[in-house]
Specification:
Blueprint: H1 10-16, H2 22-28, H3 52-55, H4 68-71, E1 95-97, E2 100-101, E3 107-111, H5 130-133, H6 137-148, E4 155-159, H7 168-179, E5 186-190, H8 193-196, H9 203-211, E6 215-219, H10 230-241, E7 245-251, H11 260-272, E8 276-281, H12 296-309, E9 317-320, E10 329-330
Parallel strand pairs: 3-4, 4-5, 5-6, 6-7, 7-8, 8-9
Antiparallel strand pairs: 1-2, 2-3, 9-10
Helix pairs in contact: 11-12
The structure holds iron/sulfur cluster.
């Protein structure tokens, strides 16, 4: 079977085409601001980014489409939310160096990029000043020196933003520099780009991931079965072929995936794509995203229903991240 790989710059073209106005998004989908109970925000501070591939997965004419609700700035974002935070996980407290967080003893997280292929309205980093916090070229040496000096760290996590928004050459240079540190065994990437722009899986990316001595895990951040298109599934298959372990973490989002049936269908689709469901996160209290919250008692009920409808290995762990805790907190323990 021959495998068609995308031209190296296809995905960058898609990334550049992701910037879209609210008016243009609604017009493309045959919708109007009046279709949304609280209206929409014409020019939000956290701008809309919807790559053409993801846009093509949204059902035209459906204001309740679960993919649309994740990317459209609805009027609820502007409602007063005095109890909500701009840094809901207190990440500023865990900054070991510019561009590096260390929340857990054996893992270090590098904010490898300040860009994302897609802007998700529920994002807990939607207020992050990446200029001050991301890993620029000038900051790499300091962060890697800290990791090299701490043999308790065996896993480096590339996050952002989205690490797969980096060009292949920059990503390769970073991975190579990490692989030089002898006590690092595992490289983990957290990325939503694979859902938003499957063309990101270039031959150069596959060669990079297959060629490193590190064990590579990618957590793909998908929230709904509709996100996993045929093109997406093919891209994930190529990654598995390169020896990458694929996991998924989702966020439990009101009106997007807050029923057991939706979650079970998503988990089955993930498994068909060779991806194991890993975490289902409750939302973090970030300013502007309260309309995505699902309360804990509803989440517990949904979790029980999911558990009853899937084999155990397909049930994601329902958790909340609590600043200062040594690990994610299971919903049952809250
Ligand atoms: S891709 Fe991830 S980091 Fe970027 S906006 Fe979406 S949730 Fe936030």
């Amino acid at each position: 079977m021959s495998v068609v790989l995308n031209a190296p710059d296809d995905w960058q073209h898609e990334a550049r085409a992701a910037r879209i106005t609210t008016a243009a998004l609604l017009a493309r989908l045959g919708l109007d601001a009046a279709d949304f109970p609280a209206g929409v925000i014409a020019d939000p501070a956290f701008p809309l980014m919807v790559p053409p591939h993801f846009l093509g997965l949204i059902r035209p004419g459906d204001p309740a489409d679960p993919l649309l609700l994740q990317v459209l700035a609805r009027g609820e974002e502007a409602w007063p939310q005095p109890e909500r935070l701009t840094d809901p996980l207190s990440e500023a407290d865990y900054r070991a160096a510019p561009g590096m967080l260390q929340k857990y003893r054996s893992r270090a997280l590098l904010m490898a990029s300040g860009s994302c292929a897609i802007h998700c309205r529920y994002c807990f980093r939607r207020h992050t000043d990446y200029g001050a916090t991301m890993l620029t070229r000038a900051r790499v040496a300091e962060a890697l020196a800290l990791i090299a000096a701490d043999p308790a760290i065996d896993e480096v996590i590339l996050s952002g933003g989205d690490p797969l928004s980096l060009p292949d050459a920059r990503l390769a240079a970073l991975v190579d520099a990490i692989a030089v540190i002898p006590h690092i065994t595992t490289l983990r990437l957290h990325s939503r780009t694979l859902v938003a722009i499957p063309a990101r899986v270039t031959a150069a990316l596959l060669a990079l991931l297959a060629g490193t001595r590190l064990r590579v895990v990618i957590v793909i951040h998908s929230n709904h079965a509709h996100e996993l298109s045929a093109a997406g599934a093919a891209a994930l298959a190529r990654l598995r072929g390169a020896g990458v372990m694929l996991l998924n973490q989702s966020v439990l989002l009101a009106r997007v995936n807050d029923t057991a049936e939706t979650i079970a269908a998503h988990c089955r689709r993930l498994f068909a794509c060779g991806v194991l469901p890993y975490y289902m996160h409750l939302t973090d209290p970030v300013a502007g995203a309260a309309h995505f919250d699902v309360n804990e008692s509803d989440a517990l009920r949904i979790e029980a229903q999911v558990r009853a409808s899937l084999p155990g290995y397909l049930v994601p762990r329902f958790v909340r991240e609590v600043p200062g805790e040594a690990a994610k907190t299971p919903l049952l323990a809250l």
